[in-house]
């Protein structure tokens, strides 16, 4: 009788929450792989400022500090501000859909680089849907951490040309990674 008493039901919901958090973290990670692969297909002229801003994020810091800040502290602060405070304040004033677009647009604009603004908008929409669907900021935080963690790992890989050349050696291979990750992310998001 696992679900026959309140303790069993409580344990079920804890397990469900952990699995959902893990699935959404995985979705964020795979979505980042997908977006990163698409960015390699964009002409360099459209990526003005992207590399400079990305390099500035990591310049002068040790790797562990970058991982902590970019993967954990920034998502935590941004989720509290955007999907927490701002969304909560705007929902009584606007319909869910309009609130979702406003919060996502402001979130995107705070990311400076044109490329970051574009995928920040899509990521903001996804994280907003997660909050509206599940009513829990921890789940959008899982998506955000997963997304940013891949970005940090990608930056670390790029520091080692012998490794990065093998992983990112050809655009068709990168596109294949992106398509596989995008398909897996889609399946995870549908759960």
Summarize the structure in words:
The chain has 191 residues and is mostly helical. It has helices at 6-39, 50-58, 63-90, 96-109, 114-134, 137-158, 161-167, 171-190. The radius of gyration is 18 Å and the shape is globular.
Protein topology:
Elements: H1 6-39, H2 50-58, H3 63-90, H4 96-109, H5 114-134, H6 137-158, H7 161-167, H8 171-190
Helix pairs in contact: 1-6, 1-8, 3-4, 3-6, 4-5, 5-6
Instruction: State the order of secondary-structure elements, H for helix, E for strand.
Output: HHHHHHHH
The amount of helix comes to: over 70%
- Main sheet specs: none
Q: Which of globular, elongated, flat, extended, rod-shaped describes the shape?
A: globular
Structural class: mainly alpha
Mean pLDDT: 82
Uncertain residue ranges: none
β-strand amount: under 5%
What is the rounded distance between the termini? 26 Å
Beta strands, count: 0
The helix tally amounts to 8
Q: What does the radius of gyration come to?
A: 18 Å
In short:
By secondary structure, this protein is mostly helical.
């Amino acid at each position: 009788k696992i679900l026959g008493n309140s303790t069993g039901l409580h344990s079920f919901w804890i397990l469900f929450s952990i699995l959902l958090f893990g699935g959404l973290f995985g979705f964020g990670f795979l979505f980042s792989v997908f977006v990163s692969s698409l960015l390699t297909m964009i002409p360099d002229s459209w990526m003005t400022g992207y590399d400079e801003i990305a390099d500035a994020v990591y310049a002068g810091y040790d790797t562990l500090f970058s991982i902590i800040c970019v993967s954990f502290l920034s998502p935590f602060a941004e989720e509290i501000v955007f999907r927490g405070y701002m969304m909560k304040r705007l929902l009584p004033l606007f319909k869910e859909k309009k609130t979702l677009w406003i919060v996502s647009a402001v979130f995107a604009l705070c990311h400076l680089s044109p490329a970051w603004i574009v995928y920040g908008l899509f990521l903001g929409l996804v994280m907003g849907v997660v909050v509206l669907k599940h009513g829990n900021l921890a789940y959008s935080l899982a998506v955000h951490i997963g997304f940013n963690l891949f970005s940090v790992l990608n930056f670390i890989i790029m520091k080692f040309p012998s490794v990065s050349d093998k992983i990112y050696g050809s655009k068709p291979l990168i596109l294949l990674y992106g398509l596989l990750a995008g398909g897996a992310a889609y399946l995870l998001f549908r759960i």
